[in-house]
Design brief:
With 326 residues, the protein is of the alpha/beta class. The chain is built from eleven helices and twelve strands. An eight-stranded parallel beta sheet has the order 3-4-5-8-9-10-11-12. α6 links the parallel β10 and β11. The longest helix is centred in the middle third of the chain and has 15 residues. The two termini are 31 Å apart. The site of NADP nicotinamide-adenine-dinucleotide phosphate has 28 residues, from α10.
């Protein structure tokens, strides 16, 4: 597998996002299938595994990841996040989101950061977190104060590298001035353009970009015609029956292009992303070993500049219906 750099951290160009493996996310899943998916990802070379203390109830996703990498910990770049799974009794601040439920809540107070990390270390059953992200900046706490607490964790050996998720360029710059940031993790895919100022700041500072939901939470695979009952995408307006049908029509030329190239729409979406910047990595999620193998093969696909231009022209011709999530 080709590799990329996130600051001083080397990772495979395509990693694995484990969120899909907790109940209540993308339909049917159980722990045996989840652990099997992570092992399949590692076997295929996706050794950068991304989780969060907020995925699934009571650290479910971290505990699942911890069990799956048991005995193979040295092969893995283990990334997790904090700030949204707030200890009982602590205050929190709202973050408006485009999901139908309206808001997430965050607490990234410096005094809580060590406790978050120690809980994640227990969940993951490990003694160090390779890449530890602030999941979402706290509107009540300057990001540089949270990063100050993260720097202490690095000094004390609990964490190797720090990351920020869902930040803008100004927040990245403020944080990086306190402690080097290895990676920013923001949504970026064919149906969710990156913030150009953030990409420019990351390039300038030598910070890697980890693209979350690189398959558009499954939409860009071209396989989502409707949703099952236990699927959280019911909360995402882009997946309402009307918007989904329209969005599928809009993306028909992209799917046709994938067919013409002899690759799958998922592979085209991932290869396109990797061509956007040399320090971008993708962390697609999947419960299915065949999908995981298909996705990882995208790291070896080279797209001709004419193809990239055709894609950009097609994407510029329309707006996706349903707004954005964050
Ligand atoms: N920092 C943040 O705020 C944030 C927010 C969201 C996500 N994330 C991270 O990003 C990771 C990935 O995002 P995501 O899981 O939301 O979305 P995604 O990777 O864009 O899409 C996942 C969906 O695509 C389907 N899929 C994957 N490969 C496929 C293939 N080749 N063919 C057909 N279907 C395929 C999966 O279904 P199957 O299981 O059936 O394959 C699943 O439903 C998460 O695990 C998480 O680590 C971070």
């Amino acid at each position: 597998m080709k590799t990329r750099e996130l600051g001083n951290l080397r990772v495979p160009a395509i990693g694995f996002g484990a969120m899909v493996l907790s109940p209540g996310m993308y339909g049917e899943i159980d722990d045996a299938r989840g652990e099997n998916a992570i092992r399949a990802a590692l076997d295929a070379g996706a050794t950068h595994v991304d989780t969060s203390d907020a995925y699934g109830p009571d650290g479910h996703n971290e505990r699942l990841v911890g069990r799956a990498v048991k005995g193979r910990r040295d092969e893995v770049v283990l990334a997790t996040k904090f700030g949204l799974a707030i200890p009982e009794g602590e205050a929190s601040r709202p973050i408006p989101v485009g999901f139908k439920f309206g808001e997430l809540r965050v607490n990234a107070t410096p005094g809580l950061v060590r406790g978050y990390a120690e809980r994640s270390l227990r969940n993951l059953d490990t003694d160090v977190i390779d890449l530890y992200y602030l999941h979402y900046p706290d509107p009540g706490v300057p990001v540089e104060e949270t990063v100050g607490a993260l720097a202490e964790l690095v000094k004390d050996g609990l964490v190797k590298h720090i990351g920020l998720s869902n930040v803008n360029a100004a927040q990245l710059r403020a944080a990086h001035a306190v402690h080097p940031v290895a990676a920013v993790q923001n949504e970026w895919s064919m149906w969710r353009p990156a913030d150009p100022e953030l990409v420019a700041a990351a390039r300038e500072l030598g910070v890697g970009i980890v693209a979350w939901s690189p398959l558009g939470t499954g939409f860009l695979t071209g396989t989502v015609q409707s949703l099952g009952t236990d699927d959280f995408r019911h909360n995402a307006p882009r997946f309402s029956a009307e918007n989904l049908a329209g969005n599928n029509d809009r993306f028909a030329p992209i799917r046709d292009l994938a067919t013409h190239l002899g690759i799958s729409p998922a592979q085209l979406a991932l290869a396109w992303l990797l061509h956007q910047d040399e320090h971008v990595t993708a962390i697609p999620g999947s419960r299915t070993p065949a999908h995981i193998a298909e996705n990882l093969a995208a790291a070896d696909i080279t797209l001709h500049p004419d193809t990239l231009a055709r894609i950009d022209e097609a994407l510029a011709r329309f707006e996706v219906s349903g707004g954005t999530l964050l």
